[in-house]
Amino acid sequence: MERPVTPARPHHKLTEDGRRMREVLSYSRRGSRFTPRQAEAWAAHQERWVIPDEAVDRPGFSLERWFGRRAPLVVEIGSGVGEATAALAAARPAHDVLAFEVWRPGVADTLWKLADAGADNVRLCGVDAVWSMEHLLGEGSVEELWTFFPDPWRKARHHKRRLVSADFARLAASRLRPGAIWRLATDWADYAEQMIEVLGAEPSLEGGVVERWADRPVTRFERKGVEAGRTITDLCYRRT
Mind telling me the catalytic residues? Predict the structure, then answer.
């Protein structure tokens, strides 16, 4: 019996004549140069806490093997430098936290924060989160989804690159177990409006704007938004 072919990941798709396919993605890959502290954290912790990109292409890929146990799964998309990730994961030792982040220096920053917090229940992945949600996570497998301050892609012509779209809402809802929570936050008013419109139209989700989630630490990124005069909008939706 032939093994099914793993669908090509973003940046790995080719046209019929062998050229790399131009793709609309919700992120851009920035520089990868480490500071000395980041390099030290990477050397000390990446083997244990970072899932290599190529691992997802291997037959039989299993998150349970990478976590070393079976536990309720929390997924974070865009963990940045790990300020929220480390604090929230350390407070939830009975949960596994799968954090998606494509910026390698941010992952390295996250590693030393996890070590300082004693949060051994996090695994970081640099593979496209949308592809991973579709191909690596089963339906109803996620206990909670966090999407804090996704790239707003401020220019109107770039809005198609925003993560929170109707297609992604449908996919994300299918991965949440019934009763599971999707928490979001943004400091861009028009993106908040888009989130409310898109998520409100997804029939398997119910929720809306809520008070700021007290458990979420105020990060440097959030403080910059507030200092710039932008309003922080928190949203929470439940899978019906």
Answer: 151
Return the beta strands (E) in the chain as ranges.
50-51, 73-77, 96-100, 122-125, 142-148, 176-186, 205-210, 233-239
At 131-169, the pLDDT tens digits run 999 999 999 999 999 999 999 866 777 578 799 999 999
Sign of torsion over alpha carbons 61, 71, 68, 96 = positive
- Quote the CA–CA distance of 48 and 14 in Å, as a whole number: 32
How many CB atoms are located within 10 Å of the residue 7 CB? 11
Which DSSP category does 42 fall into? H
Do 162 and 194 meet the contact criterion of CB atoms below 8 Å apart?
Answer: yes
Nearest to 86 by CA among 105, 110, 60: 110
- As annotated, the binding site for substrate includes 155, 187, 219-222
- On whether the pTM is more than 0.70, the answer is yes
Annotated binding-site positions: 76, 101, 128, 151, 155, 187, 219-222
Residue 208's beta-bridge partner residues? 236
Give the confidence band of 22 by pLDDT, cuts at 50, 70, 90. low
Rounded Cα–Cα distance for residues 213 and 229 (Å): 20
